[in-house]
Structures are given as structure tokens and as C-alpha cells.
Task: structure prediction
Amino acid sequence: MWTAFCRAPGQVLCCLAYYFKLPDNERLKNVEITFEGNVIDLDETARKYDVTLDALLSALKLNNKSNDYLRIGNQLVDDQTIKAIQSELNGVKKYNEALIIIEKYGIKGQQVFDILGYKVKWSGLDPDNAEIVKLP
Result:
């Protein structure tokens, strides 16, 4: 494909220009995406590879790169962190206390409650009155 345009040694700029005109999905096919850490910010990772979030998510699905992680919003969280959060949430009733626990691990979304089998029970609009309840 692009090699037809870049056969001469002096055509490096031509090759780079062609590469950067490729759609994000095409560019990611030949790139190894690596993760470091327990919680991965997908928006930040997309910026790192200079692609859209949708293209990054498509590439992760195709390459099964996120198997060791659980997607929560626009983050990937490893199993070890999920288990640690689940352990710390055991016995916690107050919503605000639960938020402090998940934020301590760097998780931004509250979808983690659904994933771990909790429901937020609201009493009015004040978060201080809200509780988390473990679903059976």
C-alpha cells in the first residue's frame, strides 16, 4: 500500500505524510498499544497515540488488548484493583464514603457500583443522605 509511494530513499517525508493521512484505525493496526498501571485513562492513551477514542476502543477490541482490564467509563481497571475496591466497600453504607474509596484508586466513573453489584439509594438530592446497597 504505502510502500508504492516510498520506494526512493529520499521520500521519507512523503511516507510520513501518507501515514498521517491514514484513518486512525489503519494507523493503529501496526502499533503495539501498551498499558502501565492499575487504572488506565483511555482519553489520555488516545492522545498519546494521537488517535480518537473510538479508534482506540476499536483497536483494543480487535487485538483483545484489554482482557486483563475491565472498562469503566473511559478507563480500564485491572482485576486486582476491582477486588481491592470490592473488599473495601464491604460494610460501607454511605454513598460519600464509597465515593472516597473509588476515587482513592483513581476511578472517575460511578459505574463501578453497578459492576460490583451495588445500587445507589437516594433520599432526596443531597449526596450525604444517599446510601449504597449490595444487590442480592
Q: What stands out?
A: The first strand starts at residue 39 and ends at 41. The first helix runs from residue 12 to 21. Residues 10-67 form one domain.
